[in-house]
Write a structure and sequence with these properties.
One of its GO terms (molecular function) is histidine ammonia-lyase activity. This protein folds into 2 domains: about 200 residues, Orthogonal Bundle (Fumarase C, Chain B, domain 1); about 270 residues, Fumarase/aspartase (Central domain) (Fumarase C, Chain A, domain 2), CATH 1.20.200.10. Helix 3 crosses helix 6, helix 4 crosses helix 9 and helix 9 packs antiparallel against helix 14. With about 500 residues, it is mainly α. It is built from 20 helices and 9 strands. It has a 3-stranded antiparallel sheet with strand order 4-6-7.
Length: about 500
């Protein structure tokens, strides 16, 4: 199976596949024709002696400096080398693969003036498993993700100091290309700028964050339903009539998913007619309202990022029909920055409401369960500090959720005076997702422990499946034992999507 790029716009499902699997890509023949037209337009500009930014001028504040035709190849190579100044840890290989695919998608719009062989090299590198080392830090999310994408371009030109992961080892780019049977590209006019300019790094980071948030969201509905049953809480707040009266689509869909997850639970049925509780705490009762609002935002973010993934975001843009070359600002990643900030809020809230449910479960005054969910409180501390860990992570995420887009700092001698900060705004989603996976892990363990206290009664079929998934890696914790490995094991169940698959498709992103 392969994914064709350039025939139609990439879908959310295709982007998810590109981010999570080593799926080969094919460039559509029609897109190759568009590339030829754009490259021919740039070649005519050089032949006619026209002065056009990015083709035969300097860059940024140096845009008014005309470059001799004999130096155009050197100009593009110098641009790549001078801009390859990223710092920090390497981006994850799944992120880099997605960056490469998004750059292909952008270039195959045919308005970047790049030759087909240049784009084909990028596709061949992706298909043969060459993953350039791209440092995580160094982009402000405007004028394109220049530093990260320069490291990608440096690999394409075979720069020996640029490292590439190939066949389970880091190799200099020239060696990796040679071993893969590929020839480094000699950049033609405008090609270096087209490769560097664009929002592909910030967009890839935001998409990876979205896909992780999607998994956490679905997992949190499972842990939330399980906690409700462990509390002997009510599913009446999930009644469809309540949510139809408000009309918020995410809320309606979330309530439907929770009803399905709790359906036919003997624990729930055991107290349906004689429950002494009037109302459950908000973190249980208001799950459809809170998680539904998150779902609505995530769906909006998904729409924004799908559009951006298919966009032409370099500068200037070449229009072969008219021969015009227009300078603009599609490289400004403001849409991605807003999307990343919204995702950060979503991820923080998933963790926040989960931590509150755990806090309720361990409190005997609120839950009716043994203190800290241990059979001999006092001698045993049970979930006392596991909840503290969840609280620490939830509070850390509150700090990380501060919007990045409201910040800006002038660059390039003031020429680039307003920037989006989309790249680190999207990159921080990974740390936040790590935190929430562990918060949910604590809730999963606590909810499972609560259900064990109601035996021989069982929960609903899907929630018992969730408990079975947990028990394959973590035992019950009736008395104290080394706790960290239980949290890690439960987090791996969540990160692996084993809970998310139990969640109904009512809450799909699109």
């Amino acid at each position: 199976m392969s994914i064709t790029i350039g025939a139609e716009r990439l879908t959310l499902d295709q982007l998810r596949t590109l981010a999570t699997e080593h799926t080969p890509v094919v460039i559509a023949p029609a897109a190759l024709d568009l590339l030829d037209q754009g490259a021919a337009t740039v070649a005519r500009i050089v032949e006619d002696g026209r002065t056009v930014y990015g083709v035969n001028t300097g860059f940024g504040l140096l845009a008014n400096t005309r470059i001799d035709d004999a130096d155009l190849e050197t100009l593009q190579k110098n641009l790549v080398l001078s801009h390859a100044c990223g710092v920090g840890a390497a981006l994850a290989d799944q992120t880099v693969r997605l960056i490469m695919a998004l750059k292909i998608a952008s270039l195959t719009r045919g308005v970047s003036g790049v030759r087909r062989q240049t784009v084909q090299l990028l596709a061949d590198m992706l298909n043969r498993g060459l993953v350039p080392l791209i440092p995580a830090k160094g982009s402000v999310g405007a004028s394109g993700d220049l530093a990260p994408l320069a490291h990608l371009a440096a690999a394409m030109i075979g720069e020996p100091r640029q490292m590439v992961w190939f066949e389970d080892a880091w190799e200099p780019a020239n060696i990796a290309l040679e071993k893969a049977g590929l020839t480094p590209v000699v950049l033609a006019a405008k090609e270096g700028l087209a490769l560097l300019n664009g929002t592909q790094c910030s967009t890839a980071l935001a998409l990876v964050g979205l896909f992780r948030a999607e998994n956490l969201f679905r997992s949190a509905l499972v842990t939330g339903a399980m906690s409700t049953d462990a509390l002997k809480g009510s599913d009446a707040p999930f009644d469809a009539r309540i949510h139809e009266l408000r009309g918020q689509p995410g809320q309606i869909d979330t309530a439907a998913a929770l009803r399905t997850l709790m359906a036919d639970s003997p624990i729930r049925n055991s107290h349906r007619d004689d429950c002494l509780k009037v109302q459950d705490p908000y973190s249980f009762r208001c799950q459809p309202q809170v998680m539904g609002a998150i779902l609505d935002v995530m769906r909006a973010v998904a729409r924004t990022l799908v559009i951006e993934a298919n966009a032409a975001t370099d500068n200037p843009l070449v229009f072969p029909d008219s021969g015009d070359v227009l300078s603009g600002g599609n490289f400004h990643a403001e849409p991605v920055a807003f999307a990343a900030d919204q995702l950060a809020l979503c991820i923080a809230e998933i963790g926040s409401i989960s931590e509150r449910r755990t806090a309720i479960l361990i409190d005997p005054k609120m839950s009716g369960l043994p203190a800290f969910l241990t059979s001999d409180p006092g001698l045993n501390s049970g979930f006392m500090i596991a909840q503290v860990t969840a609280a620490a992570l939830a509070s850390e995420n509150k700090m990380l959720a501060h919007p990045a887009v409201v910040d800006t700092i002038p660059t390039s001698a003031g020429q680039e005076d307003h920037v989006s900060m989309a790249t680190h705004g999207a990159r921080r989603l990974g740390d936040m997702a790590d935190n929430v996976a562990n918060i949910l892990a604590v809730e999963l363990l606590a909810a499972a422990e609560g259900i064990e206290h109601h035996r021989p009664l069982t929960s609903s079929p899907p929630l018992e499946q969730a408990l079975d998934q947990l028990r394959t890696v973590a035992t019950a914790i009736p008395t104290d034992r080394y706790f960290a490995d239980h949290i890690q094991a439960a987090a791996e169940v969540i990160e692996g999507g084993r809970l998310a698959t139990l969640c109904p498709d009512d809450v799909a992103l699109g």
